[in-house]
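Lab notebook: predicted structure, single chain.

Context: the supervisor wants predicted structures on file for every construct in the current expression panel, including those that have not yet been purified. This is the next one on the list. No modifications to the sequence; it matches the entry in the shared construct table.
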Amino acid sequence: MSADLSGGPPEIVVIKCGGSGALDVDRLCEDVAELTDQGRNVVLVHGGSAEMSRLAEQLGVQLRHLTAPDGVVTRYTDAATLDVLTLALAGRVKPALVTALDRHDVPAVGLTGLDAGLLRARRKQAVRAVVDGRVTVVRDDRSGRIREVNAGLLLGLLAAGVVPVVSPPALAEDGEPVNTNADRAAAAVAVALRAHSLVFLTGAPGVLTDPADPASVLDTYRLPQPGEPAPGWVRGGMTVKLVAAREALLGGVPQVWITDGGAAHPLKVLSGDGPGTRVTLPEPPSP
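Prediction complete. Output recorded below exactly as produced.
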């Protein structure tokens, strides 16, 4: 990892990957190696829904989702699902990323949110979900929302020239693990590190006005005003990515991108040379 030549602190890039199964791991790691050679610091935050589904099928565990009244879809997490999540992310997805980075001469260390209290969350006591058209309160969901990131741990690793590879679960107030959305965890990490850029890698070339047409990708997507609904074509996994993008932007992250994890060079979006959508905050309301 080469030294930064600007005289200032190295630029930090947080990358969220691994949720859709559409990720080209080798190409991602090649791009990460290029970023680190340029003197930038990189943190990878990953999910692993495809690997979770494969493992759950092998173990005979049924995975379920909850849809909030605002359309945001989250994973229902009982004890068995939490086991599947931990095994899939820490035992399969993370080692694959760390070893792929090593093949590109990028030293990396894998961490879950449990390590040294990296991700601390507040467990959700109740979750409102739409079931059969009715709003229902779910009280046994073992998930939480990030309230604290151990930035010092990550900064120490970055200073040592190491790429942290981070995933859920997180640590709740009672010392027990809880699931937390990886997109929103990436946003929390980016805010805590005062990152310059946050990139969400997904199975689409960016935000699409027609989810069935890759050519409908937007160069820029301006988030709606608070309280305004998102356009009807924003749905599925893109909904929570845009929620996380808003959280990162409001937390001071200057640049947030959504791009294709399967592209030939998925991180070229940072230099303007690749496909992708830049997400921005809404225009300030008129006086």
